[in-house]
Write a structure and sequence with these properties.
The protein is mainly alpha-helical and 493 residues long. The protein is built from 21 helices and two strands. It has a two-stranded antiparallel ribbon.
């Protein structure tokens, strides 16, 4: 399996390098990118098929080679029950983005496909890294290509949104690097597996490191009040940029809590957990109220991500197996559902030239029945309808808040549970209001001749619909994978 892990990084890197070579490949750049991403997805599926699910709590397929020997930095890779779902999700969403582009003719296609392949390299590398500095390098690799995806292929306000994205995320990365270097200075090692097993730092040092690393990760998540770059980035990004930004890039921040902050700095996590929970529930309610005030559909979906990531952070703040499982489940569910939502919103904007709710609706079901039906499905999945993937992450996060880890103030977390439950109700409210204004209501006739979903679009969307149903009806398919890894993370027998 170790060869396959290296292949997951080598393939998108080689594909991107090939696109740099001048020649006729630019005319078929999207097809080339589709082929490369298809092979990467096949390798990810092969890794999943060879994975030992009876030992999901330990690292498998590890690669450990010297990288910068005089600094003690190693090219250390591995996969366990926490990282495997995110690797497969990244490969799947990248492939579906290239499928979606195959039905369109994006300008400067060679450059766009190059950016998407570099993004895939950085995202998968982040989830496979077991060395702190290697983790940071891959964490940063995604910033420049995403900046250009927004700035070159985005909407009218793309440059401002791109500048805001890069400034916020670079500032967060600088704070993250300070925290990682502090851990290195205190322990003399960058090995994430060793640090998680030995916990060599004292309590005060752990608190300081957790605060620095936590702030850096919270910007990428994003956590309220460090979220303000997200709505602009989502609103102005092209469809594939929004899908990967919501579906994977946000997960890199939350993954950092599960892989770095909590297992390596458990005492720091316990000290900061009440504050993390408080900011999480504020984000849940704030995101829902902001959605109720939106008139732009892309901006509404962007603000919904702030609320959904609040549930993920609340799960982490409980420091319990139930809560952290909820966070990991919510990560995957949000990636699938919000990825589908941005695909659909992008399709509407391409057809109508706007994402303004007042101009798109009402009566969308009468005009575009396939697109509107899928939008309704994705919306009710996002609001947490039982039987769909969005339900389990939110429900388990609230359950985790009901019984937080020993040593955490239970009354405070009960308050968080109540506020989070209110946020879930508000989430249902803004999605139902949106659907009532957009998809339902009178249809005033045929209007302009606008085609419904194409075969290429359905090919990109249907896999997400199927997975939302599978994980909603069969949650143990994912929980059975993450639970052993969560027990190892928390040191639970």
């Amino acid at each position: 399996m170790n060869v396959l892990l290296v292949a997951l990084l080598a393939l998108p890197l080689l594909g991107a390098l090939v696109l740099l070579v001048p020649g006729p490949l630019g005319a078929v750049a999207v097809r080339f990118g589709l082929a490369v991403s298809g092979v990467v997805f096949a390798v990810a599926v092969a890794v999943a098929s060879l994975f030992d699910y009876s030992a999901a709590g330990r690292m498998q397929g590890t690669v450990d080679l010297p990288w910068i020997p005089w600094l003690g930095v190693r090219f250390h890779l591995g996969v366990d029950g926490i990282s495997l779902p995110l690797v497969v999700l990244t490969a799947l969403l990248t492939l579906l983005c290239l499928v979606y582009l195959a039905g369109h003719r994006p300008p400067r296609a060679r450059e766009l496909v190059f950016a998407l392949l570099v993004l895939e390299l950085g995202m998968i590398g982040t989830f496979l890294s077991l060395d702190l500095l290697l983790f940071f390098v891959f964490f940063e690799v995604v910033l420049i290509p995403m900046y250009f995806v927004i700035a070159v292929w985005g909407g009218e306000g793309r440059r401002r949104a791109a500048y805001k994205f890069i400034l916020y995320t670079l500032l967060g990365s600088a704070v993250l690097l300070v925290g990682l270097l502090y851990v290195w200075a205190q322990t003399g090692t960058l090995d994430m597996v060793r640090l998680a097993a030995e916990h060599p730092m004292g309590r005060t040092a752990q608190i300081l490191a957790f605060m620095a690393i936590g702030v850096g990760l919270a910007v990428k998540t994003p956590m309220w009040p460090l979220h303000t770059w997200l709505p602009d980035a989502h609103t102005e990004a092209p469809t594939v940029g929004s899908v990967l930004l919501a579906g994977v890039l946000l997960k890199m921040g939350t993954y950092g809590f599960a892989r770095v902050a909590i297992p390596i700095l458990p005492e720091g996590a316990a000290a900061v957990a009440p504050w993390l929970g408080a900011l999480a529930v504020v984000g849940i309610v704030y995101g829902a109220l902001a959605c109720l005030a939106q008139r732009d559909l892309k901006r509404l979906i962007a603000y919904s991500s702030v609320g959904h990531m609040g549930f993920v952070l609340l799960g982490f703040a409980t420091l319990t197996p139930v809560g952290i499982n909820a966070a990991l489940y919510g990560n995957i569910a949000h990636g699938l559902i919000t990825g589908l939502l941005f695909f659909l919103v992008g399709a509407l904007k391409e057809r109508y030239g706007t994402s303004d709710l007042d101009q798109l609706g009402p009566g969308l079901l009468g005009r575009l029945p396939y697109v509107a039906s899928l939008l309704t499905f994705a919306s009710v999945a996002s609001l947490g309808l039982p039987g769909l993937a969005g339900f389990w992450g939110e429900m388990l996060a609230l359950q985790g808040a009901y019984e937080p880890a020993a040593g955490l103030p239970r009354e405070l977390f009960l308050t968080f549970m109540v506020i989070g439950g209110l946020g879930a109700v508000l989430t249902a409210a803004y999605f139902l209001v949106m659907l009532s204004r957009l998809t339902h209501g009178p249809w005033g006739g045929p209007g302009p001749a606008i085609h419904d979903a194409t075969r290429v679009e359905l090919t990109a969307w249907v896999p997400l619909v199927a997975l939302i149903l599978v994980f909603g009806l069969w949650p143990s398919a994912l929980l059975g994978l993450t639970t052993p890894a969560v027990h190892t993370l928390l040191g639970v027998p």
